[in-house]
Amino acid sequence: MKRICVWGTSFKKVADEAQLLAIHTILTEKFPGASIHYFARYGEFISGHRPEIRATRIAQVFRIVSLLSKADLLLIVGGPFYEAPFQALTCFSLFIAARLFRCTVAAYGITLFPFRTWWGKILYRGILNRLSVIEVRDAIGIDILRELGVTSRVTSGADPRYVLEPAPPERVREIFKKEMLDPDQPAIAITTRYLHAEAPKWVRRSHAYSSARVNNANDVMGRVLAALSDHAQLIIIPMHPSHDEDDETAAALRAHLRDPSRLKVLTQRYSATEVIGIIHHCGFLLAGRQGSAIFATATATPMVAVAYEARMIDHMQRAGQADCVFDWKTIEYEPLMAKIVEVQTTAAKNRAMRLDDAKQWKQRAWDDAALLETLI
């Protein structure tokens, strides 16, 4: 029986949950009957919501060492390589423990942020140069690794989340009715990014945060939503770690609407597959989060994106929609509004092309997963 340990997945945000479910879907398909354990900061929370997933808290050191001592593979996924001291220590400790037990260590479907600190560069360069395989889910990740000084072979693949299927239409209609929304009326899905002065330092640094930029972005987005509110239900899908963050962003945006009640924040966090289904049902997405843009691409849903980080621009370019993404730092109302109108009016004409693209991305994600079979 194959024994696989996975580090880097999370349940903190909807996009993290989607990553977790995608990796689990791929591993159970590629290695039927394998023993799969996930390491996370809140293991019991994940297992409580997803009983089919066995997760262990990273603080359970002896349990993790025991699992690694018997493992064939430590698979690092998601975006765990960021410059926070405890996170870096965790990555280093897991890597060293796995190597001591002669366990293969590989990175698959990872995302990366630019490395800025001297200690982060030294530590992560040392780890990444010693992995058996490195596959990044964002093409920009290759540039980041080369800048870091990683000389190992790096490949770029499709995001593993493309393998996920949306929740059934009847479940999505239930959600709409529960949220006091009309499933038969036009709707626009919105995902937001809440940036503020108290955000973690590495987040503010990686997003080029400034209060002036936040105020301008909120002003532009608010004006856009005011223009759209007469024609469709506006639905903010919570994708932040905390629902309060979506509420804070909504409050800033509602200030621009004649009728603030036209902008609805869903009352709870829905599962990743339900969120994919909601985006698909809405028929248009104004994407502030990369995960939601991937969901839209996977379901052939028309969208326009606001990029808060380079990964979003990278995704839109790879999806053949480079003209549909706007940098949040320099965003302006007129170009954004014009592009939204253009995408909406050409949606029917471009549907076949989007469906074909979605099919190809899903197939590529499964084809890329064949790489895992070479590791054990």
Furnish the topology, listing elements before pairings:
Blueprint: E1 3-7, H1 14-30, E2 35-40, H2 43-49, E3 55-57, H3 61-70, E4 73-78, H4 85-100, E5 104-110, H5 118-128, E6 134-136, H6 140-148, E7 154-156, H7 169-178, E8 187-190, H8 201-206, H9 211-228, E9 233-236, H10 243-254, E10 263-265, H11 272-282, E11 285-287, H12 290-298, E12 303-307, H13 310-318, E13 325-327, H14 333-345, H15 351-368
Parallel strand pairs: 1-2, 1-4, 2-3, 4-5, 5-6, 6-7, 8-9, 8-11, 9-10, 11-12, 12-13
Record keyword descriptors for this entry.
single chain; 376 residues; alpha/beta; Rossmann fold; 7-stranded parallel β-sheet; 6-stranded parallel β-sheet; 15 helices; globular
Would you give an account of this structure?
- The chain has 376 residues and is α/β, with parallel strands linked by helices.
- The chain folds into 2 domains: 3-157, Rossmann fold (3-Layer(aba) Sandwich); 169-361, Rossmann fold.
- 47% of the residues lie in helices and 15% in strands.
- The chain contains 15 helices and 13 strands.
- The chain has helices at residues 14-30, 43-49, 61-70, 85-100, 118-128, 140-148, 169-178, 201-206, 211-228, 243-254, 272-282, 290-298, 310-318, 333-345, 351-368, and strands spanning 3-7, 35-40, 55-57, 73-78, 104-110, 134-136, 154-156, 187-190, 233-236, 263-265, 285-287, 303-307, 325-327.
- A 7-stranded parallel sheet has the order 3-2-1-4-5-6-7, sandwiched between helices. It has a 6-stranded parallel sheet with strand order 10-9-8-11-12-13, with helices on both faces.
- The longest helix is centred in the middle third of the chain and has 18 residues, at 211-228.
- The chain is globular, with a radius of gyration of 21 Å.
- The relative contact order is 0.12.
